Amino acid sequence: MPSGRRILVVDADTAGAESLLTQLRRHGHEAFGVRRGEAALRAHEDADLVLLDLELPDLDGLEVCRAVRAVSRVPVIIVTARASELDCVLGLQAGADDYVAKPYGLRELMARIEAVMRRAAWQPAPAREIRRGRLHIDAGSREVMVDGEEVALTRKEFDLLCLLASHPDTVIPRKQLLQQVWGDSWSRRTVDTHVSSLRGKLGDSAWIVTVRGVGFMLGNP
């Protein structure tokens, strides 16, 4: 793996975090750390990879992971003392790319970092702008326009629309929408409510097509 990655360590354990930061720097990485979830939500934008503990003093690490994943594709590896299978499943559902239980071997962690970064390198970057007929989505500024008129959306409405628009002519299963937009922590009714709201704001119900028993896809009225 190329050296010089910017790795953000989010861990309230000062001693443990400093030790990890030192090891990462010895491996040629530009490592920096924060102790709180709120700080992580600001700092992840400057990172190539995030190592995230779940035990934080202000926010639960799962919520931090969901919040990061809602706005960014930066790879996230959860590194935590929560070692149960359920914790691992919840972490992956929250959007983490991998899950490492403490205590861990440094070689294992470095190998997992390499694997995650290798997978990330093969993923195409999302389109900054998406156009679909009269619909224009700017992923950078999170602005949506129809016929040149701006449409005011909530964050989740935008995330839902952007996900559908990023896969044109593809039906996105309801379960996938829940996992990627809400972290799989809400009911199927949540999707229906947001789809209904989006249709109203976009001015035409045909913008979002329901495929009964499967999910939804973006239309082009």
UniProtKB/TrEMBL annotation:
Residues 127-220 form the OmpR/PhoB-type domain. It holds the Pfam family Response_reg. Residues 6-117 form the Response regulatory domain. Keywords: DNA-binding, Phosphoprotein, Transcription, Transcription regulation, Two-component regulatory system. Signal peptide: none annotated. Residues 127-220 bind DNA. InterPro entries: CheY-like_superfamily, OmpR/PhoB-type_DNA-bd, Sig_transdc_resp-reg_C-effctor, Sig_transdc_resp-reg_receiver, WalR-like, WH-like_DNA-bd_sf. The modification 4-aspartylphosphate is found at residue 53. This is Response regulator transcription factor. It comes from Streptomyces gilvifuscus. The lineage of its organism: Bacteria, Bacillati, Actinomycetota, Actinomycetes, Kitasatosporales.
